[in-house]
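tokens incoming
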């Protein structure tokens, strides 16, 4: 194995000079009469990546990183200090610094640590981490994808492929005496194609992954399915016509279109925005915020999913959190800080990009439950509208819920049938409003293939999204016609 740490408990060994008494001393140093909570977050990870462009290696790398962050919380104020040097003296300095930032009091406290705990379950057992798979094997996979895409259609002129994986170990110790560790594998494959014909150039992309073994990509030639999808989209878009603009009924396909749900309502249901009264959903628990066909879940407990975690980055077990049930707002996603200040229980949504970042409420896997309608029935119900299958980038304003999304695969619906592919389509709306316009929900819930990355306050974390086929009445579509 290429990693030096086999399990989170190995942070307590001679390599780091760490043991239970020293960890207790560090937490004690963080506490004062003004400090409500303190924690220490250890991280060690190995990551690698390789990419091909035009059949040649464009980039290949492997990295090892480690570090530790110490946090002290006093009321709404957090003090945080971090270092990439894991030693007892460094942590003692960090603990004192975090305490001084959050509170001017001197250290007084006593933490009783019961020993390192394992998570209640292991959602992603992996025998061979991605970084342990030989680089030559990954290059062979990418080159096979390159050849497949070029053979798919002579109009495919450029192919880019990339593979990345991480094997991360974390250990969280809190002033409540909790010490829990987690081992987190993650991998992702990306494929992008460019097609050209008669001066027209279009692109298509696909990919997937999760907290899975490398062989996940090989099972049933899954990697070729991603390749086929990227090439198909590029060729399809060569024949796309300009998208119409105006108000129309829109059908969103299952799976990745759940990214619209993630942006339109997901961020607005994170605890920090609601505690501060900044969200369009602040103070609306118990109110109707969506059609009664809509039940929206955030679930970090789904095995092998990209957004799943055994415990969050504060040591809280992740959960199946019902956010909206039959259109009624039920609750928010919470970390420990905002949950305490709002007088509710944390939901296991405290996440951070790395040891150098403070945790905050973030989504895990966010999706809408399926309904009773057949997807074909939903399409047939629309006389004239848009069928959006896949999205590219999007933006949302948390304060009012306004969003805009660009569709990278969409079609016209005419007389209840899917007809011409269109390009340049964007969906424009308001999250609290658009969910009230959901008129039909399909029975075909799918989660995305494992490519989502969410940004918030300068931090990026892996997430999942999902959606059944749904019909939304009278959405604003931006187009070029």
């Amino acid at each position: 194995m290429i990693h030096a740490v086999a399990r989170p408990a190995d942070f307590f060994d001679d390599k780091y000079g760490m043991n239970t008494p020293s960890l207790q001393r560090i937490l004690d140093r963080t506490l004062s009469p003004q400090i409500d909570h303190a924690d220490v977050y250890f991280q060690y990870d190995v990551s690698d990546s390789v990419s091909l462009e035009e059949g040649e290696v464009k980039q290949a790398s492997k990295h090892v990183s480690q570090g530790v962050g110490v946090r002290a919380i006093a009321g709404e104020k957090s003090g945080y200090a971090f270092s990439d040097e894991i030693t007892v003296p460094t942590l003692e300095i960090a603990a004192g610094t975090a305490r001084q930032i959050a509170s001017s009091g001197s250290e007084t406290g006593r933490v009783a640590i019961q020993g390192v705990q394992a998570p209640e379950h292991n959602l992603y057992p992996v025998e061979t981490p991605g970084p342990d798979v030989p680089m030559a094997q990954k290059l062979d996979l990418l080159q096979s994808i390159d050849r497949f895409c070029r053979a798919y259609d002579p109009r495919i002129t450029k192919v880019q492929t990339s593979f990345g994986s991480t094997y991360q170990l974390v250990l969280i110790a809190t002033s409540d005496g909790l010490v829990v560790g987690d081992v987190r594998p993650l991998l992702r494959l990306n494929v992008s194609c460019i097609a050209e014909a008669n001066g027209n150039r279009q692109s298509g992309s696909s990919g997937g992954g999760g907290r899975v073994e490398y062989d996940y990509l090989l099972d049933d030639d899954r990697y070729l399915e991603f390749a086929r999808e990227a090439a198909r989209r590029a060729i399809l878009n060569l024949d796309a016509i300009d998208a119409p603009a105006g108000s129309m009924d829109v059908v969103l396909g299952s799976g990745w279109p759940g990214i619209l749900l993630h942006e339109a309502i997901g961020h607005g249901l994170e605890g920090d925005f609601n505690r501060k009264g900044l969200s369009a959903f602040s103070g609306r628990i118990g109110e109707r915020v969506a059609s009664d066909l809509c039940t929206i879940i955030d679930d970090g407990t789904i095995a092998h999913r990209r957004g799943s975690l055994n415990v969050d980055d504060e040591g809280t077990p992740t959960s199946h959190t019902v956010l909206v049930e039959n259109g009624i707002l039920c609750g928010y996603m919470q970390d420990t800080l905002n949950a305490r200040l709002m007088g509710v229980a944390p939901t296991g949504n405290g996440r951070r990009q790395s040891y150098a970042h403070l945790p905050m409420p973030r989504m895990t896997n966010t999706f809408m439950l399926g309904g009773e309608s057949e997807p074909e029935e939903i399409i047939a119900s629309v006389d004239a509208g848009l069928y959006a299958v896949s999205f590219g980038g999007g933006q949302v304003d948390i304060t009012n819920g306004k969003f805009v999304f660009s569709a990278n695969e969409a079609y016209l619906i005419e007389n209840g049938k899917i007809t011409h592919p269109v390009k340049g389509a964007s969906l424009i709306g308001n999250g609290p409003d658009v969910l009230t316009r959901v008129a039909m929900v399909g029975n075909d819930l799918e989660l995305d293939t494992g490519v989502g990355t969410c940004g918030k306050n300068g931090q990026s974390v892996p997430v999942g999204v999902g959606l059944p086929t749904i019909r939304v009445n009278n959405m604003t579509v931006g187009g070029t016609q």
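note: The CA atoms of residues 190 and 207 lie 4 Å apart.
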